[in-house]
Write a structure and sequence with these properties.
The chain has five helices and eleven strands, in the order αβαβαβββββββββαα. With about 350 residues, the chain is an alpha+beta fold.
């Protein structure tokens, strides 16, 4: 009896093994579509302790995308291959060197000091221009009033001579006052295109690496300054529209016209929206009826970059004004002596 049970049990065991062996390959061959893929992790907007979207950190807008669309380019976006070719052309232009021994050769070799754009944390952007409105990707035509204003400014400078003939004709950037025009963040310069944003419930601070300019933007709803008060970078007021920081700036100085054209009545609206840990969507719109035939707008992405920012101690231009003007006077003296020598012949 016990032997029969043992045999029967063994037979059952063998049958079970055979059945399991047949099932396992079939299970292994089951379609993978039955398994659920892990859900992608949803990005969460970082916020400050008071609940504002957190824009703080170090950012760069370094890019080879030009402000205006190049002649002959008719589309808003390049293909990746076209964008790479356009960037290569811009890189080669940056690397062009002047003829040794000439006045033009007196310049910084940006690559030597690690300042070349190709050495920075570049933003990869397929746009053919930063300007997206108008759809041409180019600045609107300037008005007759702006043309008249531009001619008057040129005539006023010409009365003082050339660039180096009078300190009033020297640019603010060459004297290390500030760079980047009326608002440094609007477009990338050739180097040091880095920024630091710090914020609290009442203010946002934007520190620019170039010339270490600082913008303090109140968020408390205070009114703009009286119209007669003009400031180098205008008078900024910020507010939150959902998760977007909107900054409106007025009261620009006639002494520092945006792009050398704008009037003191120019109005600037900037929008900052953090779209990921690494990127801020930044756009701006310029309105000045006395200068451009219509408002225009541009998109300048901001990419997270390592910090901190060190002091950009640009003093040589301002300290060297005396030497620059002395050199101009020496050139004039030599020209006068040569003219006198030819006259005697």
């Amino acid at each position: 009896m016990s032997r029969r049970i043992l045999v029967s049990t063994s037979t059952v065991a063998i049958a079970v093994v055979v059945v399991v062996a047949m099932i396992l390959p079939a299970a292994a061959q089951a379609p993978a579509s039955n398994a659920k893929a892990p859900a992608a992790k949803k990005w969460t907007m970082p916020r400050t302790p008071d609940g504002q979207p957190d824009l703080q950190g170090y950012w760069t807008n370094s890019s080879y995308v030009p402000m205006e669309r190049a002649n002959g380019v008719t589309k808003e976006f390049y293909t990746p291959e076209e964008a790479a070719a356009a960037a290569q052309r811009a890189r080669e232009k940056d690397e062009e060197q002047a003829t040794p021994g000439t006045t033009a050769d007196v310049h910084y070799d940006h690559t030597q000091f690690g300042l070349d754009r190709s050495q920075s944390d570049l933003i990869q952007d397929l746009r053919t221009s930063l300007i997206y409105d108008p759809t041409t990707g180019r600045l609107p035509p300037i008005t007759a009033e702006a043309q008249k204003r531009q001619a008057e400014r040129s005539a006023s400078r010409a009365m003082l001579g050339g660039t180096n003939d009078a300190v009033q004709n020297m640019s603010f950037s060459s004297r290390c006052y500030f760079m980047g025009g009326a608002v440094p963040l609007l477009s990338a310069t050739n180097y040091n295109t880095n920024y630091r944003i710090v914020q609290n419930a009442r203010y946002v601070m934007i520190l620019t690496e170039m010339i270490h300019d600082v913008r303090i933007i109140p968020l408390d709803g205070r009114p703009h300054l009286p119209k007669g008060v003009q400031q180098w970078f205008g008078d900024s007021r910020g507010r939150w529209e959902g998760d977007t920081l909107v900054v409106e700036t007025t009261n620009f100085s006639e002494k520092n016209p945006f792009r050398g054209l704008a009037s003191a009545s120019m109005r600037l609206t900037e929008r900052f929206t953090r779209v990921s840990d690494e990127m801020i969507k930044y756009t701006f719109t310029v309105e000045d009826e006395t200068t451009w035939a219509q408002p225009w707008a541009a998109a300048v992405p901001l990419k997270q970059t390592p910090g901190p920012l060190f002091e950009h101690a640009c003093h040589e231009g301002n300290y060297s004004v005396g030497n620059i003007l002395a050199g101009a006077r020496l050139d004039e003296q030599r020209a006068a002596e040569e003219a006198a020598g030819k006259g005697r012949k």
